[in-house]
Amino acid sequence: MTQSSPSTEPQTQPRSAREWVKILAQYREPNQWRSSFELAVTALPFVALWALAWWSLSLSYWLALAISLVNAGFLLRLFTIQHDCGHGAFFKNRAVSDWVGRVLGVMTVTPYDVWRRTHSEHHSAAGNLDKRGMGDIYTKTVAEYQALSPLWKLQYRLYRHPLTLFVLAPSYVFLLQNRIPYGLMKNPRYWVSAMGTNLVLATILGTIWYFGGWMPILLIFLPSTLLAATLGLWLFYVQHQFETTQWDSSDDWQLHDAALHGSSYYVMPKVLQWFSANIGIHQVHHLYSRIPFYRLPQVLRDYSELAENNRLTIRESIACARLHLWDENSRRLLSFAQARALYG
After folding, report:
1. In the 8-state DSSP scheme, what is residue 173?
2. Tell me: the pLDDT tens digits for 16-62?
């Protein structure tokens, strides 16, 4: 598809979400060579650093650990490429995208077909109060929280605590939950995806153990996997869990409006933007998920007004970790303390 030039006519009023969808359609076509290049410059360093870390075990365990932590950045980028494959945005041929995604799913310990389905649910229902629970971080309204018993209030508080979300949850989700087709247990297709990924992963880890013992697994595989998982979960969190995000009941919910107003633009330094494969440009991604990640910055260059929409810096994002409840009256995400101050 030929990309047209952005309009130079001044806008008298902000474009609607539906207008943005039509504009963004011109950026959807992936470049086969560019996609192959991005895959190569991510996967090859990842494999090379894995080998270097394994070799360095004979010199220093600390050196091997340090290399594995650096490698978490490349693993995060591989996950984001897998994410593009799941949207059919990385290669023009859907079958190629899917098989690249399945291979990457072994490296990211994430069954590709299971994840693609749950992530599709996230995109189709993000910001819909009546369709919470699959592929998202569960968020209660203030009224729902107030109606809970003390025991269930405690349970929700523990769930939303940063220690749970950013320390315990990454290990649970990627090492345990991903081993079964959680949420899709009745469909044999997703069991094949989960068990196939598990079998290949077990074979690889078994081979590593046979030749290197437990140290490559404990000091290379686990640290890089868990750090990448933690970074990925944090990115997913701040892309939707910010103060001025948008939630509505089904009667008022609109897919494209929720995408534009319920997703953040997470502003990061260039190096972090590279390792996260531009996933911080999330408002554009949710508006048109078929855009390859390497074309997202071009969208912001052509339409600078999108760069001002839900803009969130790293410093500002830290405060998002204390937001827990959606207030339907003020239409803001609140902390427990703010909700208590407003409503008792």
Report:
1. I
2. 888 999 999 999 999 999 999 999 999 999 999 999 999 999 999 99
Q: Are 152 and 252 in contact (CB under 8 A)?
A: no
DSSP letter at 286 equals: H
The Cα–Cα gap between 294 and 258 comes to 23
- The Cα angle at residue 125 between residues 124 and 127, in degrees rounded to 5: 135
Q: Rounded to the nearest 10 degrees, what angle do helices 61-86 and 32-56 cross at?
A: 160
Q: CB-based contacts of 276: which residues, under 8 Å, 6+ apart?
A: 76, 77, 80, 231, 235, 268
Residue 79 main-chain phi, psi, to 5 deg: -65, -40
- Give 310's DSSP letter: T
Burial (CB < 10 A; 0-12, 13-18, 19+), residue 327, is: middle
287 with 260: CB under 8 angstroms? yes
**Residues 6+ away with beta carbon under 8 Å from 9:** none
- C-alpha to C-alpha distance for 98 and 101, rounded to whole angstroms: 5
Exposure string over 203-219, b if 16+ CB within 10 A, otherwise e: eeeeebeeeeeeebeeb
Cα torsion angle, 44, 49, 52, 57, sign:
negative
